[in-house]
User: Fold this.
Amino acid sequence: MQIGMVGLGRMGMNMARLLLRGGHEVVAYNRSPEKVREIEKEGAVGATSFEQLVGKLRQPRVVWLMLPAGEVVDETVRAFSRLLARGDIVVDGGNSFYKEDIRHANEMKSSGVKYLDAGVSGGILGLENGYCIMVGGDEADYRRIEPVLKTLAMAEGYMYCGATGAGHFVKMVHNGIEYGLMEAYGEGFEILRESPYGEGLSFQEVSHLWNRGSVVRSWLLELLESAFGKEPDLASIPGYVEDSGEGRWTVQQAVESGVSAPVIALSLFKRFRSREKGLFSDKVVSALRREFGGHAVTPPAGEASPGAGAGPVRPARGSKTQ
Assistant:
């Protein structure tokens, strides 16, 4: 299948590679041309503009966006709604807020361009393991891109979730759960560290042990084992934990739905507090974000956190994919 890939960041580049390995024809665009040249060497067809990318795709076209949520996606969706033709499909594979998906789909109706939202999980290791993909939109359009999903996802790792917005909604809740899990691991290892037995424990070995039949075993624990193997005390990692926006959206949705979600809410608030004073539990969470998503472990110099001061429904105008 032929597909246009827009955005060659941490995940977009690896997804393009996986598609090429699966025999798909990839036409790739990125704002910085170096990334395009890099993927061209691996077999992709490069494009230097949206117009050129569209011109190199056969109708009906499929364009997959892997971009930071917010204004960048807004501008890109508007551009492709003008450039594409009736029956073409745009897939937003980033971490957009699900209510934005509904707006984008409505904006495209007049031009006849179809819109799908795809929540993608798997981080920087998706190239090796495959991704978990949650898709919303018209089911017939979902079926059209299914060959791409089969290549990108691990076995049984993709799902049609429902109408427009459903894919990103399910991914949003997924990330809210992720917040709570990571915080629980962080607090647990801080209790171990501060206990009378802390100095004699290898946290790398504890992580490894708990993944052998324990009820708390998980991929996150595998990543913790890796992080502790690189640096047993996480000394170089600041206890500053960023949030990409989806935890906020999950908490806001819990409020709108009248659902009690204290663990997810408190894990989000703990991230806010981490920016004032970093504890070992915050170092653990920061290390986990680096391991699965390649996220920076320090805030940009002189910059506030993404979404700081924004409203609860649409914060984090530069949110990163997970």
About this structure: Confidence is low (pLDDT under 50) at residues 302-322.
